[in-house]
Amino acid sequence: MYYDPIKKTLGQVFNRTPWLRRLFYHLLDLLLLRTWHVHRELRRWAKGRTQEPLNILDAGSGYGQYTYWMSGLSAKWHILAVDVKEEQVADSNTFFRQIGRSNVQFAVQDLVLYQEPNSFDLALSVDVMEHILEDVEVFRNIHASLKDGGMLLISTPSDQGGSDVHDDGETSFIEEHVRDGYNIREIQQKLTTAGFERVEARYSYGEPGQISWRLSMKYPILMLGKSRLFFIILPFYYLITFPFCLLLNWLDARTTHDSGTGLIVKAWK
Hints:
Blueprint: H1 4-14, H2 18-31, H3 33-46, E1 55-59, H4 65-71, E2 78-83, H5 86-98, E3 104-108, E4 120-126, H6 135-145, E5 146-157, H7 184-193, E6 198-204, H8 207-226, H9 230-253, E7 262-268
Parallel strand pairs: 1-2, 1-4, 2-3, 4-5
Antiparallel strand pairs: 5-7, 6-7
Helix pairs in contact: 3-9, 8-9
């Protein structure tokens, strides 16, 4: 199914006031398991750095929830968030001006083309690379845009059932994906080819995470894909499932997985 129309509808609902958008970000932080893993890695990276004037690239910013979270860690960090969707970029710039976070800027950029040599201390790419066919070119551009010692943090589906693909005959649950998921060695090799000196990768979305994803994301998206009337039912649905999803997310984020439908990858220049 196509996810972008549902994302657009959600954006329209929660963009009405800054308070609603903040609420939306907090809900995403709790429900999306990838956020638990990404925040954990970002906290490790940020330790001892919050007083430094650092430059950060949010490569494929989407709703802007990761930029919002990072900009709250330090007012000394300057964050450039880029995305190809002009409407989302405009909405995000308006929101961040409304809440007074002047250290954040959103811009329309294509990651296949965008490069800002030796500019960033950290680059973040969350659920972006599965949408881009020219992935090695993007990795090269981000590598060139990082300063020496800079780190790229990636969250993306794996080939162990990412995008809800488990057999050769199945197709991705999300139609916008150009690949079903990365083999862990494949993405490490591609990052090395792009110039990164050190790459670390681990699985996310183990057994607890996969159950949580179905409850918190797959089933609600399927419902909304059938009819927008399910927006009325969703609060009651989450009232029942939300506590279980929180517990499952907590377990997944604190467990080492031999396999999983997601990957958390770190690469250093």
